[in-house]
Design a protein that fits this description.
The structure is a single chain. With 129 residues, the protein is α/β, with parallel strands linked by helices. It is 52% helix and 14% strand. The protein is built from seven helices and four strands; from the N terminus they run αβααβααβαβα. The longest helix has 18 residues. The protein is globular.
Length: 129
C-alpha cells in the first residue's frame, strides 16, 4: 500500500506541467504523514506548487484525532495555539495545505485560514489537458 502523497510525488508529479506557481505555501505536516514517512512527499508537492514553502517550527499534532475535534473543539484549540500564533505572524500566504482532511478542518478553525489538501492545490496549478 502506498500513500496518495507518495504516489503523486513519485509517479505523477514528474509528468505534470505546472501553469503557475504560488508565492507562498504554508504546510501543516500531520501525525499520519510523519508516521508513514510521507512528510517528505508532502513537502516536495508543496515545493512544486509554491516558490516559498513554510512549515511553522511550532507545528505539531492538531489533536483533531478523527472525530475528537468535532466533539471536543477545545482540544484542537489548545493543541494548535502555538502554531496558529506562528502562522498569524507569518503574514499572508496563497495556500495553506496539509495531507489529511480532519487536520485541515482543525487548522482552518485554529488559524482562520482555509487549509486544503495539497493534492487539491496541485490540481489547480497543474496544466489541464
Amino acid at each position: 500500500m502506498v500513500d496518495a502523497l507518495d504516489f503523486v510525488a513519485d509517479t505523477v508529479l514528474p509528468e505534470v506541467t505546472l501553469t503557475a506557481r504560488l508565492d507562498r505555501v504554508v504546510v501543516h505536516p500531520t501525525c499520519s504523514t510523519t508516521a508513514l514517512g510521507s512528510t517528505d512527499a508532502l513537502l516536495r508537492l508543496a515545493a512544486a506548487v509554491g516558490r516559498e514553502v513554510v512549515v511553522p517550527t511550532s507545528w505539531g499534532c492538531c489533536a483533531f484525532a478523527g472525530d475528537r475535534g468535532l466533539l471536543h473543539p477545545e482540544l484542537t484549540a489548545s493543541a494548535t495555539r502555538p502554531e496558529a500564533a506562528e502562522v498569524a505572524a507569518l503574514g499572508p500566504a496563497e495556500a495553506y495545505v496539509s495531507g489529511n482532511r480532519t487536520c485541515e478542518i482543525g487548522m482552518t478553525r485554529a488559524t482562520g485560514h482555509e487549509y486544503r489538501h495539497i493534492l487539491e492545490v496541485l490540481a489547480e496549478v497543474a496544466d489541464q489537458p
